[in-house]
Amino acid sequence: MLNYPLTTLIEEIRLIVPLSETDIALLHALFQPLSLEKGDYFVQAGQVCQHVGFIQTGLVRYFINQDGDEKIYSFGLENEFVCDYESFLSQRPCRRAIQAIEDSALVIISFPNLQRLFAELTYGERFGRVVIEQVFVKTIRQLTSLYTDSPEIRYQAFLDEYPALSARITQYHIASYVGIKPQSLSRIRARWSGKDYTRLSSPE
């Protein structure tokens, strides 16, 4: 049995389905701890994603490297699941990467153990369906925004979705997520604040 606190994971699952004591024991048996230092990868492009993780503490970014240009399309924060689901479900190599921006503590579950979880958890199939639905909706929303929204709208959406994240990441990361150059984000911020932001920080 896992000698590691699963309190937050259990609380998050209980928001979706009820859990019995037997269910909780199963979670402890199937999840394992994983520590990532800042800069470590949860998975890199070209690798097969072998686990679904749950972030206890820390922060990760999802990004694609296109012709040497990193394009961030999402962030993973505390109390959120993290995975390249396309690679994980198909067991094929990733086309994107997931990297820790901060030192992060996670618990992870392998593909075989996740199938066991769905089968043996009292409401395992319902839990799996709801999580996948949430991932699908979030992915479609992000993709639609990338092709239809202006940079200003995407920046406002970033502030709305991640209200406390600006203090934890560089402005370079924000600009990459919005889909513009740092200088363009600087001009947006200057227009909004009335101040002249002449230079945004570069990646560490």
Automatic annotation (TrEMBL):
Residues 15-118 form the Cyclic nucleotide-binding domain. Pfam families: cNMP_binding. It comes from the Bacteria. Coiled coil: none annotated. This is CRP-like cAMP-binding protein. The lineage of its organism: Bacteria, Pseudomonadati, Bacteroidota, Cytophagia, Cytophagales.
